[in-house]
Amino acid sequence: xxxxxxxxxxxxxxxxxxxxxxxxxxxxxxxxxxxxxxxxxx
Length: 42
Prior knowledge:
The chain is an all-alpha fold. The chain has 1 helix and no strands. The longest helix has 14 residues, at 12-25.
């Protein structure tokens, strides 16, 4: 077992929104895609 942090962390609000989307679609195994755009501070 490792002590590494998970690759992605969601806020409680984000997790609830994703759960609501899955419920709305009627698919509890629904997948979602995350992207990261460059920009901001360098």
